[in-house]
Design a protein that fits this description.
The chain has about 450 residues and is an alpha+beta fold. Helices cover about 65% and strands about 10% of the residues. Strands 2-1-5-4-3 form a 5-stranded antiparallel β-sheet, sandwiched between helices.
């Protein structure tokens, strides 16, 4: 039941239908006041144009929505970043409709583009929203406090961050649309799925490598303890353990730079690939929106269709440019990951030589139950696994590079005939934006 008593249950429990193929948008100023939209937006919201234009966008806000979502939304768009979110809206007659919205900053306000959510993730988030909204009410949570709970819950659901969530959510919604209607498929959606699958595989490899880093530290310490028991300082086992310690420290340093927890090369790759994939997904939605808007013949109300078309086309171009920038950077970082992985692998090969020397000494001391053989067995296993993981990392990096190049090649550019339409000076059309602030990517 709605948390707002202004409408009867028969109204609030009814959903406003709109087609899977329909995309709608609204444009606001910096205060969130509606300036324009398309016919689908007007029809689904149920408001007449005079009651929409110049009204605050919260006129369609549903009381069932957690305040946390809007806190995150405004935090990101005010910082100049695009955000994606599931949103439950309320029509003029009290009925509801769900959307997945991508909200992006414009020079003079914001643009929100919406599609119908149908993926298997949608009902999960719908249930999470309901539970969070009840907590907001029962515990008198502030929007910021509630946003912290939402982020924590998304983490429990397996999302590394909110940008990770919105990127994967958009990808799943686009894939679900394509699966339901082949006419809505984009060639690049398969590329996005490949990128996401590759990142998941790379994340698994990263976690195992980090575990190996911890294990290597333990084994190295054990070797030094064993050396101190077997012989006086300066003996062959001691020399081997010290050589191993020095070389393994170099490996640890490089591994931590490659897949460590603090701004590693892997973190950089995940961030830029995820951002590029999200922007690419938005560019697909924008392309559809521009085509649909150009074909609309319904009443546009006070909107100047040529002006809006020019703005939407320019925004589409901007999305493509940002996607291309992100994908190019992703390819660069993936290439650096490949080089770094190869470098670490070569150092690991150097450790193999020291490990062989340890085997020789172990044979010489075969009459002693020193634990050295067991330690060397542990090192065998670690070295084998680290080499395998690094080879996998190289392969995954190359796969990401190849997929990114395929994505870039398949991106459609906006026709010059559309871009040549000039918007009047009263409307500031956004130009291509630069690299986004990493704090909000």
């Amino acid at each position: 039941m709605s948390l707002d008593g202004c409408f009867s249950p028969s109204q609030t429990h009814q959903e406003v239908w709109f087609g899977l193929d329909e995309i709608f948008y609204s444009r606001t100023d910096h205060r969130g006041v509606i300036r324009a939209g398309n016919a689908v937006f007007q029809r689904v919201s149920g408001f007449d144009w005079p009651n929409l234009v110049s009204a605050p966008h919260k006129i369609i806000r549903h009381p069932d929505m957690p305040k946390a979502v809007f806190w995150l939304l405004w935090d990101r768009i005010k910082a100049g970043s695009t955000i994606g979110a599931y949103v439950k809206n309320r029509a003029e007659d009290g009925r509801y409709y769900w959307v997945f919205a991508a909200v992006m900053p414009l020079e003079d306000g914001y643009l929100s583009v919406r599609i119908k959510p149908t993926s298997d993730l949608f009902p999960i988030i719908e249930a999470e929203y309901e539970a969070l909204r009840q907590r907001e009410i029962n515990e008198s949570l502030s929007p910021e406090e509630s946003s912290g709970l939402l982020l924590a819950r998304l983490s429990e659901l397996g999302f590394a961050s909110y940008p990770d969530f919105m990127s994967r959510a958009l990808g799943r919604e686009l894939s679900a649309r394509a699966a339901s209607n082949s006419a809505l498929a984009h060639e690049g959606i398969d590329h996005l799925d490949t990128i996401r699958d590759t990142l998941r595989s790379a994340t698994t490899e990263q976690e195992t490598l980090l575990e190996n880093v911890a294990s290597m530290q333990t084994v190295t310490t054990n070797m030094r303890i064993i050396a101190s028991r077997l012989e006086p300082a300066g003996g062959p086992v001691t020399a081997i353990s010290e050589s191993y310690m020095a070389l393994s420290s170099e490996i640890l340093t490089q591994l931590e730079a490659l897949v460590g927890k603090e701004r590693s090369a892997f973190d950089e790759m995940v961030e830029v690939v995820r951002g590029g994939a999200f922007q690419l997904g938005i560019s697909y939605v924008q392309q559809e929106l521009v085509r649909q808007y150009g074909a609309e013949s319904n009443d546009q109300g006070p909107n100047d269709m040529a002006t809006e078309m020019a703005l939407l086309a320019r925004t589409e171009q901007n999305c493509i440019a940002v996607a291309l920038d992100g994908l190019a950077e992703a390819a660069t970082v993936a290439g650096l990951m490949e080089i770094a992985s190869e470098r670490v692998r070569r150092v690991v090969l150097g450790l193999d030589t020291i490990r062989v020397m340890g085997r020789v000494e172990c044979g010489r001391l075969s009459g002693f139950d020193s634990g050295l053989a067991t330690t060397l067995d542990d090192l065998d296993d670690l070295h084998h696994d680290i080499r395998a993981r690094l080879v996998s990392f190289v392969s995954l990096s190359r796969q990401i590079t190849a997929t990114v190049e395929s994505c870039k090649a398949g991106i459609s550019q906006v026709p010059d005939s559309v871009l040549s339409r000039k918007a009047p000076s009263a409307m500031a059309v956004p130009e291509r934006v630069g690299r986004r602030d990493r704090r909000h990517s």
